[in-house]
Amino acid sequence: MSDAYQHYIDGEWRDSDGDSFTSENPATGETLGRFQRATDEEPDRAVSAAETAFEEWRSLSRIDRAEYLWDIYHELRDRHEELGRAVTRECGKEISEGKADVTEAWHMVEWAAGDARHPKGDVVPSEIPAKDAYMRRKPRGVTACITPWNFPVAIPFWHMAVTLVEGNTVVWKPAEQTPLCGQIIAEMFDDVGVPDGVFNLVQGFGDTGAAMVDDDRVRTVLFTGSAEVGHQIAEAVAGDPSKRAACEMGGKNAIVVTEEADLDIAVHAAVMSSFKTTGQRCVSSERLVVHTDVYDEFKQRFVEVAEEIAVGDPLETETFMGPLIEADHVDKVSSYNDLARTEGVNVLVDRTDLPDAEVPDGHEEGHWVGPFVYEADPAEPLRCTHEEVFGPHVALLEYDGDIERAIEIHNDTDYGLAGAVISEDYRQINHYRDHAEVGLAYGNLPCIGAEVQLPFGGVKKSGNGYPSAREVIEAVTDRTAWTLNNDEDIEMAQGLSADIKTRKD
User: Fold this and answer.
1) In sequence order, what are the residues at sequence separation of 6 or more whose Cβ sits closer than 8 angstroms to the Cβ of residue 498?
2) d(CA 472, CA 455)
3) Do 291 and 258 touch, CB atoms closer than 8 A?
4) pLDDT tens for residues 194-223?
5) Radius of gyration (Cα) for the chain, nearest Å?
6) I need a surface site. Which of 149, 302, 340, 453 has the fewest CB within 10 A?
């Protein structure tokens, strides 16, 4: 299997005895490379290497650990154009988004490495003047990182940058749809000379991720992906109180457009939220909750844009939407579009099956769909308006009344990841801020575009309370409360006597 890319374990490129699989360009069908699928042996060896490397890695100062990340940061910046094209070729995002994926990665590495020189912990007053009381963070150990295909460079560093700076070691399984991006990142770690076993790459499918999750030596699991898999991971980890899982999952996200909205902002935000990455973001908006006073004008303008959005070669700068990631996902999105019709919605835009004239030359093997837009009654419990589609499938939901009614519709889903409100009335914005059931909220903006210095995670079915990006520190470290007595006598809080009494004969 020498013609297939290898795993990276304990500082070496290693073959496995498993089958090989290919990575394909979703716009053209071109094979980008062959990769070795892990057997049971590779996750075990990777975890063993990470466990062995942990003590020496944690013994370095945070600043020394961050130096390796600074080298990665410069690699990401210097290779921005090259890596952006690699992202676009492997996952189908149009080229500005491919480059933005790499930009987001270096932002995360920059933040994590820079944070190494900032204080970590809390000094608190003790009840006893002669005592110092404070909290310190300690790394938890081996961390399994399982990442999705739609941000194949950014999200891995959301997981790994803070994790490594804080003194943990990593075993990483990238998505099977984007193994080439994983390979490039592993080559970077090898090039900068990170100590053996600190970073490990294992390529594979769900069984490989499950083996990592189930390994007793793994202390923390970081996962970004579907709600189904995330809940399985959280359930598996829940049986071991010494393990922890941070799961960021999907969403059925909504944008609220009130009667006080600036419709220029509203339409622009809705188009970006619904159709960027061809709707394949966990934060993409599949529901637009619009007040009746502005509904007709918003609908007309949004539909006009959806009808004309450029779908095509993601490497061309004039393209707005590239392909879906794979043929199975085309089937899924198409089935939800069919379901919406079956459920009786009013279809406004249907570009599910792109005509041959819209498919770029040489891209006939790509996985193409266009926008699908419809209006539905928000009072109806339709599957199409409540289940995540993960594609350019968008419902317009008209509401009458105040912002409270809009929030009711907004929150009427099992998910709670991202959302936005468009309004020129700050009271409406503040009400949304306080009552929308989301982990990521935006005012007069799209519901996409998170920044690394903020937490990223959801509530309800969208997450389990341990967000990624900067706040992943809560998942990969334990806080220890430390109290130091500076006096020669022992004095206890709560008036507890420190005298030792002995029994009388």
Assistant:
1) 489, 490, 491, 492
2) 8
3) yes
4) 999 999 999 999 999 999 999 999 999 999
5) 25
6) 453
3-state helix, strand, coil in the chain (%, to 5): 40, 20, 40
Q: Which domain holds residue 334?
A: 253-450
With residue 50 as reference, give the H or E element that holds it.
Answer: helix 41-59
Is residue 282 part of the annotated active site? The answer reads: yes
Q: Which residue has the tokens 């959280």?
A: 234
DSSP 311: B
Distance CA 324, CA 327 (A): 8
Please give the average per-residue pLDDT across 3-12, as a whole number.
94
Residue 371 lies in a domain: yes
Residues 6 or more apart whose Cβ sits within 8 Å of residue 290: 257, 266, 298, 299, 396, 397, 398, 399
Flag whether 268 is in a domain: yes
Whether residues 191 and 279 share a domain: the answer is no
Q: Is residue 489 part of a domain?
A: no
Same domain? For 114 and 76 the reply is: yes
The answer on pLDDT for 371 being more than 80 is yes
Tokens standing for residue 132: 């110092």
Q: Are residues 238 and 276 in the same domain?
A: no
CATH of the domain at 169: 3.40.605.10
- Predicted confidence at residue 466, as pLDDT, reads 76
DSSP, res 391: S
Q: How far apart are CA 238 and CA 241, in angstroms?
A: 7
Contact 328, 339 (CB under 8 A): no
Q: Please report whether residue 425 resides in a domain.
A: yes
Both 21 and 96 in a single domain? yes
- pLDDT, residue 120, reads 81
**Catalytic: which of 145, 181, 247, 282?**
282
pLDDT in tens, 80-110: 999 999 999 999 999 999 999 999 999 999 9
Same domain, 166 and 213: yes
Could you tell me the CATH number of the domain that includes residue 397?
A: 3.40.309.10
pLDDT averaged over every residue in the chain? 95
- Helices 62-78 and 179-191, interaxial angle, to 10°? 120
Report the distance separating Cα 177 and Cα 390, nearest Å: 16
Residue 227, pLDDT above cutoff 50: yes
| Cβ density class 165-204: b for 16+ within 10 Å, e for less | bbbbbbbbbbbbbbbbbbbbbbebbeebebeebbbbbbbb
Specify whether 240 is located in the same domain as 267. no
Statement to judge: residues 263 and 218 lie in one domain = no
Instruction: Assess whether 41 carries a catalytic annotation.
Output: no
pLDDT over 80 at 1, yes or no: no
Active-site option among 75, 248, 259, 286: 248
Q: Are both 241 and 385 inside the same structural domain? A: no
Q: Provide the domain count of the chain.
A: 2
